[in-house]
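Reopening this one. Same input as before:
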Amino acid sequence: MSSKSFTVSVEPTVLIWARESIGMAIDEVAKKTRGITADIIREWEKKDGTLKPTFAQVERLSMIYKRPLSAFLLPAPPKETPFPTDFRTLPSKEKQPLKPKTYLAIRKARRFQYSAIELIKELGEESKKLFIKANLSDDPEVLAEKTRGQLGVKGFFRSATFTKEDALNEWIKILENNGILVFQISITMNKKIRGFSLIDEDVPVVVLRRSDETSAKIFTLFHELAHLLLQECGICDWEESDISHEKFCNHFAGAFLVPKDKLFNHPVVKANEKIREWSENFLKDIAWDFKVSKEVILRRLWILDLTSKEYYDKKHKEWESKYKEPFGKGKRDEIKICLQERGKKYISMAFDAYERKKIDMVGLADSLGVTSDKISKVKDAI
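Same output, byte for byte:
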């Protein structure tokens, strides 16, 4: 008898939890397992079923579900926070279930969030909290102005040498200084999901799609901030729609990044205020000064009645048809990925905990997700 052919008494509820936590249907799992049919998996998951998987089969499930073997020995599923609400704006007939990669991204972000909470406790620090709470009846323009005040935003990035990448880093720094962690994680292979947010009274989190263009990340950052102000966590694509939550969050993000008074007083707008169909060059010039995309500017012009919805829709479709995924090729940069995924605030807390002997070298490497020989390079990078 093979050393792995003995059966393992796995609780059916644990098997169901492990499968659902990666968003896979039984038929999908069966396609990834040799000699294990969907009917067999259903038998394993039956409450009073007598059929049990072998150790080798549990090993295979562990690989598919991305869970350690020890998880399958739990007496019951662990208590976990519900997954973020799916706010994607596709019509229900077109909306596909979330892919396993997205479930894994959410699980990774939660892991970082829980680790950050533990680091804060180890360091004896108090987490900084946003005191603004919003609801859908609020005026997004007023809320954006109020939020800028609380975050300490004093000006905007108008320098000719200040790039969108610089702006993104500054915005992330501002949010992290106000107690909101920002992670940039690989979420999905298409732009139908731009980001998500995770609510926690100690450490709220915004997650950006790592492969997105910089201007898209900037908009997503504040779209997700709006969800946090609404005290909700969600998975978003930020397409314009009639869904109240997404419409509100889009409006807030635009108002935060492109304040009404500053847009009205922009020299290009002041010189062309009677124009209804704004040229690409005009939009590009304005977008550069606010460090956002042309579409964000055109959406603001539409909201502020400086263009028509018909023209906005026309340009949106045009830009949509030309969009290409900005997936890069080349050698994987572990240090850059570490910095993006965890963010400088989280990484700084990990090093602080190590230097104060709250965690050891193994704990530091685990917090950073790198091997010990890469630790010094991560420190140099922050």
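So the earlier flakiness isn't reproducible anymore. For the record, The longest helix spans residues 100-123.
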